[in-house]
């Protein structure tokens, strides 16, 4: 009795080679349709997560990244600083003014007043005048052009400003009995303001203001993401 046949869940084909042994070729069941279906499902899930913006950034090779280094934004930030006082100087001047009449001795008619005045002057830059043309951005470097600091008006300190001495002639003392002297100091105070303004212009107040403003802007722009900052002055 022959050996019973064995049932195999695969298709087998018998081939023979006249010059060699008998070979059995097994044709396995194809799995490519199943792989294709799985890939389509994964692709659909990826597209859905991308459309809903729920895809993790690490898995999104097309994730967007925006770096905003446009100069107008920085210009607006600088304008918000408005007017910045870079330095303030305090000055003391002596005002010695004598008034009299020609051909009349001073002991008869004349007046000499000695005034000590204390006042301050500040130097500032108006950042509201900064435009896009004043700012050049190249990568992480910023170059800013500004006008020179402007000296403000003299502000007298009336608590420290005082008359040290006043010498008047006989005619002036008689006139004082009949006239008010409330405005006598006005010319002296005006002269003190002018002298202090000249002293401020001749001092290093403007240079100190430039150094202070440059330091402030450098720190400010560093915080905005620009490590290299150059500030130039003298813009018209």
Instruction: Tell me the structural class.
Output: alpha+beta
Radius of gyration: 46 Å
Beta-strand content: 25-35%
Distance between the termini: 118 Å
Shape estimate: rod-shaped
Mean pLDDT: 74
Total domain units: 2
Spell out the helices and strands N to C.
EEHHEEEEEEEHHHE
Helix content percent band: 25-40%
Q: Point out poorly predicted stretches.
A: 1-17, 20-28, 57-62, 169-175
Taking the sheet with the most strands, its summary is:
5 strands, antiparallel
The oligomeric state is single chain
Give the beta-strand count. Answer: 10
Q: How many distinct helices?
A: 5
Task: Spell out the key features of this protein.
236 residues; 2 domains; 5-stranded antiparallel sheet; 3-stranded mixed sheet; 5 helices; disordered N terminus
């Amino acid at each position: 009795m022959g050996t019973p046949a064995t049932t195999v869940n695969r298709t087998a084909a018998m081939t023979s080679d006249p010059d060699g042994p008998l070979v059995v070729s097994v044709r396995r069941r194809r799995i490519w349709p199943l792989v294709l279906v799985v890939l389509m499902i994964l692709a659909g899930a990826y597209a859905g997560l991308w459309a809903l913006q729920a895809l993790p950034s690490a898995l999104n090779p097309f994730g967007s990244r925006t770096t905003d280094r446009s100069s107008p934004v920085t210009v607006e930030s600088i304008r918000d600083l408005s007017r910045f006082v870079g330095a303030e100087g305090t000055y003391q001047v002596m005002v010695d003014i004598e008034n009299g009449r020609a051909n009349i001795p001073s002991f008869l008619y004349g007046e000499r007043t000695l005034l000590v005045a204390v006042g301050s002057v500040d130097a500032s830059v108006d950042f509201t005048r900064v435009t896009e043309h004043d700012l050049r951005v190249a990568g992480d470097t910023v170059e800013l052009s500004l006008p020179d600091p402007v000296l403000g008006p003299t502000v007298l300190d009336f608590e420290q400003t005082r008359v040290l001495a006043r010498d008047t002639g006989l005619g002036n003392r008689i006139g004082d009995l009949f006239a008010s002297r409330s405005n006598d100091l006005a010319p002296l105070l005006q002269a003190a303001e002018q002298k202090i303004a000249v002293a401020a212009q001749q001092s290093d107040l403007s240079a100190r203001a430039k150094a202070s403003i440059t330091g402030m802007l450098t720190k400010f722009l560093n915080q905005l993401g620009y490590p290299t900052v150059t500030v130039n002055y003298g813009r018209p």
